[in-house]
Structure formats: structure tokens, C-alpha cells
Amino acid sequence: MNSQGxxxxxxxxxxxxxxxxxxxxxxxxxxxxxxxxxxNLQKSLRYGxxxxxxELTFRGSYRGELRGEEFTAxxxxxxxxxKGECVALLxxxxxxxxxxxxxxxxxxxxxxxxxxxxxxxxxxxxxxxxFNPILTGRENVFVNASVLGFSRTETExxxxxxxxxxxxxxxxxxxVHTYSSGMRMRLGFSVASHLAPDLLLIDEVLAVGDLxxxxxxxxxLRMKVASGVSxxxxxxxxxxxPRLCTRAIVFHQGKIxxxxxxxxxxxxxxxxxxxxxxxxxLASSLEDDLDxxxxxxxRPQSGGLQILDARTLTTGGVEExxxxxxxxxxxxxxxxxxxxxxxxxxxxxxxxxxxxxxxILSSLKSKFFVKTDRDxxxxxxxxxxxxxxxxxxxxxxVALYGENRSQLLDTQSALAPFQILNGRGxxxxxxxxxxxxxxxxxx
Amino acid sequence: MKPIEEIVYTPEPPxxxxxxxxxxxxxxxxxxxxxxxRLFIRNISVQYRQTxxxxxxxxxxxxxSSMVWLFLQSFRVIQFKGDYTSGQYLLFVLIGxxxxxxxxxxxxxxxxxxxxxxxxxxxxxxxxxVVIVVSAMEVVFxxxxxxxxxxxxxxxxxxxxxxxxxxxxxxxxxxALIITGLAIGICLMPVGALYQDVGRTLIIISPIWMxxxxxxxxxxxxxxxxxxxYCNPASPMLITGRELIMGGELIYLSFAMLSLLGVLPLLVxxxxxxxISIPILLERVGAS
Lengths: 443, 288
Fold this sequence. Notes:
The structure holds 2 protein chains of 2 kinds. Chain A is about 25% helix and about 35% strand. Chain A is of the alpha/beta class. Chain A has a domain at about 300-420: Distorted Sandwich (Coagulation Factor XIII, Chain A, domain 1). Chain A has a 6-stranded mixed sheet with strand order 7-8-9-5-10-11, with helices on both faces. In chain A, strands 13, 15, 16, 17, 19 and 20 form a 6-stranded mixed sheet that branches. Chain A has a 3-stranded antiparallel sheet with strand order 4-3-6. In chain A, strand 8 (about 200-205), helix 6 (about 210-225) and strand 9 form a beta-alpha-beta unit. Chain A is globular, with a radius of gyration of 27 Å. Chain B has helices spanning about 20-30, 35-50, 55-75, 85-125, 130-150, 150-155, 170-195, 195-210, 225-230, 235-245, 255-285; one strand spanning about 5-10. The interface between A and B is large, with 70 and 58 residues. Strand 2 (about 10-15) of chain A pairs antiparallel with strand 1 (about 5-10) of chain B, so a sheet runs across the interface.
């Protein structure tokens, strides 16, 4: 059976269980998909009218060169998702994740390429869509469920489970405008999570309610995945992702920067995030230099000293960007000096894009001082013998002080980015650090 | 063995297969008729839940404006040919206002419905025409409820207006008028969703268009006054609908039927236009 429909959509029905057909394990096949947007509203509206007119006159959708102010939000992306696979789409804001999800959901049409989906798609993209504040929670459950594709009978059958999961209790018969935002989200998640799709698309909806409810949501999704449902998840709650997903696709500037094992994907994402943060910090410091003589942080003074470069090395002195937990790491800094100083101090902050400052190490505490000669370059190394960090991406912020404690000579962020990667199945600790510890049974 | 659906999304415009597209539009919306019913009930119940007068708000505008026109006519502020008694004129204007308001609500509703539902359209994949079907149901419901106000006036004015079987066909004229309004409204919706000029223009032309339609005055005869009927899509059905109750001669019945025949292809075209426009509109205007 074939028919044509919205978004250049072709639909046909195939006979099968949906889970065990030989040779058809791919639930989604995304092939060379691109999507463009326009950043200028007036032009975007004009292109909209032109596009509608093109299609009405059987000239097809516009596939030529980028028009003025257009940019590629998703650029030649291809991937597949197998049945029962849980994939995290990671990437900084504006990387193209949500656009990709909307195309997979059939809401937006790709400008090129194709997306083939086998099975029923459910989407948790915005919780409580269709909720009306004047109606009671009960009325809204039925409306929301109907929008999501439940029949009245199905909703009635699942109503008690939905109510129990949402923990709304007797407030179910109160108007939704009396609910807190958390209660509203919980009710929305409860309805949507009772869908029974083959593929579930989740876009940033897991920051729902309190921590207890969030964990409950993750547990619920984990059970769905265990039952064979495929999930594509967009979330910035990185700590939760490895618990649910086995694979990560990292988007960066509209392209796939990485597709593979989840921890490696998380590390890659954190690295991208760290670089972007560093770039933004640099841009804002340049703006501060131009615009404001009074910054929130101490400004570097012109002392003729500058951090030129930084890199990470193994304890054997070999340049390396990937380490394992508890390995040794050497940070090498190259400093240029315009004058000779005897007692310069360094403050090195180990950072993670997600956890912020992890450790602040000052050379003063170790009674180490950098000595520089006029018009020369100095190389300084700081060794960490046992790096207790877990899988992820990290970088350093380095501040160089002069002889006077308040004399900040130079400071730079996002230096020497590196990643900790222990390989599949070897990452035993979650959080930020793996502390040395031992267990004892006393009785 | 249950059938599993395979869907392929491509840049290919659905209009390349208009037959399949129409079939899909109708079958998808038929499958989701329960959703249409539920959204219709939600919208109607929400519409008047926060009011004291409830559905009375549907009658009040028509009654109030009819009274104003009656007042103006009784003091000969406005004059036109015709031998209506005050009661007959009140009924004449009231029916005209009920029909006109239903028609214009149908013209404006598709754009309003898109604006109201665009967040939902952008987040959930459901048959896009559900929004239009629900809007149509609301406009028909409002029109029928609004028409109920005519009955007490008919009872009160039974010496002036005779009860006839033709009155039973009034709802058909009302629905035909609403279909005409919807077809126009859906055609305007895509450009209206992109440019607010359309919505603003509709606000401006509403009173002008009403004055150019024989709502408060009798049907003009002779050229060029009769162009108000032949060039105005609202006129033939409005006149016919009113004459079905007032018991006048149905001189525009055949023209009204011809207009409806012309409107039906326009309605089909508008639905296709709506379907191909929605992804483009969502991409361009996004969520509210």
C-alpha cells in the first residue's frame, strides 16, 4: 500500500512483528540529510512564500545554492538506529540536534537526503502540549493522550497508571493553572511516557520535577529500552546519559563530529563544550578590553609576561591528549618574558565544562617560583602523578602572577584540553573523580 | 503479525502525487476523528468556562447590532427601499447578522487556529488538518447556537412572518456559507501565518465587507448595485438563507448553489495548499 503525504512523506505498510524481521533491523535510516534555515526574519518570510509558490506550481522544493542569510543547520548527516538501541544526540546549543529530531519526527522536511522510519514513532518533545490551564488535570490527560494518539479506551485503561506515575494525587481534579510547573511537567511526562511506540524521540524533557522524579523517569525509560523500544535522546544531563544510552552521536556545527561508544561521545562533547566556552571567554575578555576598564575579575597587567602555549604530556614526556583514570599527566607551559623576574607564581585550575573548577593548584603552596630572563622563553612543567578523573573532557585555566600577589600578568582559559577515556566497560565510577578507597567489614 | 508502517521523509513535495495526497489527508483525519471530537469539546468548554453568561455571548453581538440598526432605521437615520415592519426589519437584520458573523468567523478562524496551535503543530506529528476540522466544527457549532436566537423572535413575530417548511433548510444555507468562508480563510492562512498584514487587513475590511453585503439592507437590483451580489462570495448564500426564513422569493437560490459548486474545488485546493504549507510555515515562524 502506498500513499503520499505531508513532508514529502511516503508511507507503506509492511507485514511483520516490527521487532524480528530478518535483514530489517534498522529502525531509522538517515541518509545525507541537510536542513537550511534563514537568520533574517524578513528574508525567511519571503523565502517561505517563494517555497510555497514553487511547490504549488509543481517545481518542487528549493534545492539550489544557499540564498541570502541562509545557513545550514544540519549538514549532510547520515546515521542508522537499530531496534532496541538507545542513542544520545549530544552537542552544544545550535548544533542541529533538535532540528534533526524534528525531521525524524516528520514535522520538518529535509532540504536534501532521506529519512526512512520503520514502526510507530512517539515523541516526548514538549511535555503537556495541548494542556489548557482552565481544564482540570483529568480533562487535560484525556486531551493530551488523544493528541499523542491514544484512543479513549486506551486512556481509560492507562489512566490509573498515569495518575500513579505522576504523583499528582487528588489534585488531578483541580484546574491545571493551580499546579506548580513541576506538577504540570510530571503529568505531561506521565501521559507521554505511557505511549507504546517502536521508536521514542526525547528532546530535553528529562529535567522534570525533583531529583526523585527524574530518576523515576530514567528508570521508566530504561525499562522501555529493555523491552526493545529504540530511543533517540537529546539531553544536557550528561551524568544520566551513560546509564541509559549505549551510543552517542555528537553534533557540532550541523555535522556529526562523532558517532560511537557513549562514554567516548560524552568526552568528545565535553571537549567541544570546553573549546566553545574557552572561545566565548576569550571573546568576552576581548570585548571587556575594548568596552570596559572595570571587569569582574582582576585584569592582566602589562608585566611583559605571557603564556604562549600549553600542552599535556605523559610522564614519559610524550605529547598526549587522551589518558586513563589514575594515569600520570604533565602540563607543559611555554611562557614568554619581556623582562626578568625572579618570583612569578602560577595558579593552574583543572576544569571540566560540566563540573566547573575541579582543583586549583598554586605553585606558591609548593614554594615553586618561575624565574624569567629578559626577552626569553621559559618552559614550566607541572606533574600530576595520579589523575583520579573519570571519563570526560577537561582543560586548564592558567593564571600567571608577578612578585606582587595582586599583580596578575596573564590568564588563559581552556588550555591544553585533554580527555579521560578508559574504554568500554572499564569506566567503573560515575561523577567527576574516582577517589582511592578501601572497604572493610567490621562485624 | 501486525502491520508495521514504513515512512520515508524526503524533500520531494507531496503535490507531485495530488491524488495520493488527498486520499492521505482524508484517511488520516478520519482515523483521528476521536481527536477532532476531543479538541472540539475542549475548545468549546474552555471558551465559556470563565464567563458568567456562557453561550449567551454567541447571541449578544447579533442581538445588540440588530437593535442598533433597528434604532437607526426607526429614526430614519438610514433609509432604503422596502416595506418592512419594525418587527420584520429586526428579524431581517438579525438573520443577516447571524449569517454574516458565522461567515466571517469562518474566514478568520483558520489563521487564528494556526496561531493558537502552532506550538502543538511544531512538537507533535498528528494530521495537520485536525486543526482545520476542529475549527470548522467550532464555527458550525457557534453558527447553529447563534441561529437559535432567531426562534424566539419568530415566535414573537408570528403575525409578521409565517412558519414554513423552507425554514428547515436554513442550517444548510448556514453551513454552505461557512464552507465558503473556510475555503477563503484556509487559502489566506499560509500567507497570513507569515505576514501579519493579512490578519490586520481582515480586521479592517470586516466592517467594509459587511456593508458591501446585503446584511442590513434589502437586495439591491440593477447594475451596478447588483455587483454586490455577483462579486461577493458571501451574498448569494446569505440572501438565500435569510429568504428561507423570511419567506421571500428564492431568486438567488440557483446562483447560491452554483457558488457552492465553485467553492468546493476551492476548498479541496485550500486543503492541499494547507498541507504543503505547514512544514514551510513551521520552519519559518516556529513556535509562539
